[in-house]
């Protein structure tokens, strides 16, 4: 039994990245079991996981600050900041005492010097905490940048993928037959040779399973999605399923983080009366009306653009 590097779930059979040597289950590796078997030993040894593929561009980029390092520094800063309220109270107490002592300072010259020294020491400590605030803010900025980079890389690894929702699971089903039936219905016939792999992927907290199709060519994938969206009434009865008909949705394959972001965008757009929200080329687009400018949302802070 092996534990998946991405989801930490134990599994009996999965894949191993030829680059980083980490083990993943088939779902997290974005490859079906049958597709993995067909690779053969030579191609298995060369196979790379989505993380290694996304980190393979020739142009080198500065290595982002480690998340563990950033989080550790933030925890240290916060522990030191716990004493700040007590220091502020000390300053106020000392200032109150000084105000009273100045009224009758003949016999308290020595104490005034002592309190002045204490006040200077405390103010120096407060100054250091001000610097710590700046450090925390910088680390939080680094953390946000690192998370955004990871999220972007994860979504980039899905650029060639299509997510199909609403197709019931059948015993001994042929996913390529379903793919061909959809292509025929939307008037976009794509040969199997353009498909890298096709598989079912479970949905969190649901018995339903998505169909993920990974194309070899990004432009073929974009044309397939565009043709499907042009047929807005695509249903299970259109692709040969009997019984009660239900809608079939063909969309870009978004990562979990991008799906969460899309949900936030839809909610904010509704509250602020934006008419259109859609995903194209794996990017979230928002339009207030047909006369306004398109806004692209890539991260949570971009929601501030919706006014």
From TrEMBL:
Residues 105-132 form a coiled coil. It comes from the Eukaryota. Residues 257-306 form the FP protein C-terminal domain. Keywords: Coiled coil. The keyword Coiled coil applies. This is Uncharacterized protein LOC111347733. It comes from Spodoptera litura (Asian cotton leafworm).
